[in-house]
């Protein structure tokens, strides 16, 4: 089973609590005005990656990562594959799981394919991005979004204390700015 990804980051501290393996999916029909990742909107294949390959990459990180964060694009537009990935993570690892989506919890629950991911998530960040109500901290992009703690693995304080931005410099000198508000970083 393949996932259409925009990008991955093996270690992030600005996309959830602790050190996270982050996946950004490719494709989003919601296209919220002012979206931080408009390059993730087209549904054309970008990086088609087998779930088995992703699981192997996560396992290779071992204790260096605490969890997996899935963002987008819109991850739930690939709900069946995301559910399969989350199932494998739960069965084979002790990693926490966090998913960002533009759908509200009610919209997810109304769609069986999307709702199937809920039992495999620790944290759900849900709701469309609203550029007229931006936030400057926590994992929420805008004030209308909701944090849903689906297990007792984290507290609300742990979620809201995640740094909003981080900077990575790759061995070849590429600068990668990541987080919920990467474009607000002033260097």
Describe the structure.
The protein is an alpha/beta fold. It has one domain (2-184): TIM Barrel, CATH 3.20.20. The chain has five helices and nine strands. It has helices at 51-61, 79-92, 105-109, 112-115, 156-160; strands spanning 2-12, 20-25, 47-50, 67-71, 96-101, 123-126, 146-149, 165-169, 175-179. The chain has a seven-stranded mixed β-sheet with strand order 3-1-2-4-5-6-7. Strands 8-9 form a two-stranded antiparallel ribbon. A hairpin with a 7-residue loop joins strand 1 and strand 2. Helix 1 packs parallel to helix 2 (79-92). The longest helix has 14 residues, at 79-92. It is globular and about 40 Å long. It starts with a strand and ends in an 8-residue tail after the last strand. The mean pLDDT is 90.
Indicate the topology.
Layout: E1 2-12, E2 20-25, E3 47-50, H1 51-61, E4 67-71, H2 79-92, E5 96-101, H3 105-109, H4 112-115, E6 123-126, E7 146-149, H5 156-160, E8 165-169, E9 175-179
Parallel strand pairs: 2-4, 4-5, 5-6
Antiparallel strand pairs: 1-2, 1-3, 6-7, 8-9
Number of strands: 9
Structural domain tally:
1
Please compute the radius of gyration using only Cα atoms.
Answer: 15 Å
CATH superfamily: Aldolase class I
By CATH, the architecture is named Alpha-Beta Barrel
Overall geometric form? globular
Low-confidence stretches: none
- SSE string, helix = H, strand = E? EEEHEHEHHEEHEE
Largest sheet: 7 strands, mixed
Main sheet: strand order? 3-1-2-4-5-6-7
First-last Cα distance: 41 Å
CATH topology call:
TIM Barrel
- Helix count equals 5
Q: Helix- and strand-based class? A: alpha/beta
Helical coverage, percent range: 10-25%
For the record, the CATH class is: Alpha Beta
* Average pLDDT, all residues: 90
The percent range for strand residues is: 25-35%
């Amino acid at each position: 089973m393949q996932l259409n990804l925009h990008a991955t980051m093996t270690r992030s501290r600005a996309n959830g609590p602790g050190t996270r393996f982050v996946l950004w999916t490719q494709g989003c029909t919601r296209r919220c005005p002012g979206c931080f990742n408009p390059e993730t909107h087209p549904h054309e294949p970008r990086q088609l990656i087998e779930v088995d390959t992703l699981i192997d990459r996560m396992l290779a990180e071992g204790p260096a990562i605490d969890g997996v964060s899935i963002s987008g694009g819109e991850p739930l537009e690939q709900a069946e594959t995301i559910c399969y990935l989350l199932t494998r993570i739960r069965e084979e690892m002790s990693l926490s799981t966090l998913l960002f989506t533009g759908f509200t919890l009610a919209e997810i629950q109304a769609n069986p394919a999307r709702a199937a991911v809920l039992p495999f998530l620790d944290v759900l960040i849900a709701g469309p991005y609203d550029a007229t109500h931006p936030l400057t901290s926590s994992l929420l992009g805008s004030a209308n979004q909701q944090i849903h703690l689906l297990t007792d693995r984290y507290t609300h304080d742990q979620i809201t204390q995640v740094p909003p931005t981080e900077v990575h410099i790759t061995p070849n000198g590429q600068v990668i700015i990541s987080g919920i508000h990467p474009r607000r970083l002033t260097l």
